[in-house]
Amino acid sequence: MTMIKRGFAALAAGALSTALAMPAFAEPVKFDFWFGLSGDLARVVDTMCKNFNASQKDYEVVCTSQGNYDATLQNTIAAFRAGKQPTVVQVYDVGTATMMLSGAYKPADKLMEENGYKIDYADYFPGIARYYATSKGEMLSFPFNSSTPLMYWNKDAFAKIGKTEAPKTWEDVGADLKAMKDAGYECPMAINISANESWQLMEQFSALHNQPIATKNNGYDGLDARLEVNKTKFVQYVTDLKKWYDAGLIKIKSKDLGQDMVQAFASGTCQVILTSVGDHGTVGRTQKEGMNWDVAELPVYAGTERKNSLVGGASLWVLSGKSDAEYKGAAAFLNFIHDPKTALFWSTNTGYIPVTKSGFDYMKGQGFYDKAPYKGREVAIASLTASEPTEITRGIRLGNFTQIRAEFGTQMQAIFANKVSVQEGLDTLVKNGDAILDRFQQTYPGKTLP
Amino acid sequence: MEKRVTFSSWTIGILFAVPQLLLIFTFFYWPAGQAVYWSLTLQQPWGGGNIWVGLDNFRSILANADYWNSITASLVFAGISTGLAMFIALVLAALTDRQLAGSRLYRVVLIWPYGIAAPALALAFRFILAPEAGFLSVINRIWPGIWDPGLDGADAMASIIVAFSWKYVGYNFIFFLAAFQAIPRSLIEAAAMDGSGVIRRFWDIQFPLITPTIFFLLVINITESFQDSFGIVDIMTSGGPANATNLMVYKIYSDGFKGLDYSGAAAQSIILMLLIIVLTIFQFRFIERRVHYG
């Protein structure tokens, strides 16, 4: 009796599942997209995902925020080792070298080609494309959220010292900061010296001045690259920053101390900061009533032939081990993101810049950069395209670069606390950074960067 | 003849223990074994392969000045925060036990800090101790630059010690108060009638009788200060400035998860485990001798 009952149940279940498998309309293919943005930015990504899902019926992307870039990479690695990886994942700029050696991805250019999408790779701003491309120029991932640093300057404070334009050289900056101090400004310029500021202080500075961070063209040409920031123009830069800090021209502002530098600038406390174009919107929304400010390209030392700045942000990687249907969906999704209209949506709602020339032109055509809250963001494009990328302004391709950034923060703190001299601190940075690179190289014996 | 059902005590014992053993094996021995294995290899983070390197990971860690700095910082942190948390809790518990006015309220209120998650309390202390905007900014207004956890390693260390101790005062307080209340009132009353004062009674009667609790808390506090400090360090200092608060457990996290150096982090965990084992053995061997169990 029970046997018969079970038989019926099985039959019924079978019939039901066949019915489910063949609905009148095909169920959309679902695939996962993990990203590392949170708060407002995560909401914008969610909206973008909804727009993609609404734009077609064949695929459904499930977008999940993992909180931040570090966690996204960690969780993706854990998921990959367990065979439960997402199809598309957002990996931050400095994770590129690790991703390239992982063997866990499907090259983005191949994916698009296989699924019949034609992407004009020459349309990407070269400064952005080269950062994520292999040394041979193949795109393994797609640039997504992109930014570059700018100098934010308080026009009112500069007017007080008789200046109407932002300083273009570090020599001028030094003189202007001094003048502002003499005019009674408590905090002419704010910086922070944690791991995060390696980006604008060390990496971008080196690119603008065409100075290497590491040998082997910043690591593009081999895993045996080693740091060399202790013998470039960067030494002079740190020396000057320290000198200005000692003279009270620069204050350190960080979240741990109660106020980060963006807040310090927006509240009018500090008059100059160096930060991402991504903060443009935040400053605009939170600024002190009536404050006049603008953005400019980062200064360079007098007599320097300015090069392009580096892109910051993240790119989208497609991981290996997924079904063809999911790859089809991923390709459609990447194609959707690549569209200039999405670029306009994305840049309007975040501070990020468009990554393609067509996206930039489309936005210009729409009058995006003429209107008040977005005016000034075109400076970021000017900074990124200041020159054709040279061998060392393509980007940085060093393993475990997150740890090197941490070491940067540690040594800068030691320098600013007068524990070591500038040269000693940078020598230690190079020594410890090289140990990290050495270890990375040992972990991948016989492998080479693509 | 009496009929009796007999079970082999051995089999039945094992059967009862199996679920527990399985849990312990799955969640403790297996991961610990995995960590030992990782510490002897170089693991590629994405699982692409690994190379056997023997004790190289340990050698490179122990040859690293930063790591020794991290051990020193951990020991300083453990010593001071344990001392502070236990001393304050002991005083508070002794006072509450004396049934001073409001002691019922204290009994409830003083337990709360332990219920707050480390990151939340670290966030609160970050605001309180912020040199420019926090409560301590008053001090900086009087003596400019005297309190600067952003650049001064000692100040940063003091910050995390205060935050950690604050949390564990609540925990220790519960145990101390329970221990005090377990002391028979008659003993204290007898001593009081003999004319000994509060301090005398504390040292001669209460203190000796709560030594088992003190010892227990000492072991727990030291162990926890090595392990539970992570959330506080992560939120308040991120190991800075200049590695001054880069405690061992935080370094394991940042090397392993941020730096994707799984093998180095595994080796550091093994060292941390050994250190805690050695410290605990030391405490049982030398300090427990002075403990009187009732």
Automatic annotation (TrEMBL), chain A:
Signal peptide start and end residues: 1-26
Family designation: Belongs to the bacterial solute-binding protein 1 family.
Keywords: Periplasm, Signal, Transport
Record's function text: Part of the ABC transporter complex UgpBAEC involved in sn-glycerol-3-phosphate (G3P) import. Binds G3P.
Lineage top rank: taxon: Bacteria
Main localization (coarse): periplasm
Pfam families: SBP_bac_8 (PF13416)
Quaternary structure and interacting proteins, as annotated: The complex is composed of two ATP-binding proteins (UgpC), two transmembrane proteins (UgpA and UgpE) and a solute-binding protein (UgpB).
Transmembrane segments: none
Compartment(s) where it occurs, according to its Swiss-Prot or TrEMBL record: Periplasm
Organism of provenance: Mesorhizobium erdmanii
Key word GTP-binding present: no
Name of the protein in question: sn-glycerol-3-phosphate-binding periplasmic protein UgpB
Family annotation (InterPro entries): Bact_solute-bd_prot1 (IPR050490), SBP (IPR006059)
An annotated GO cellular component: periplasmic space
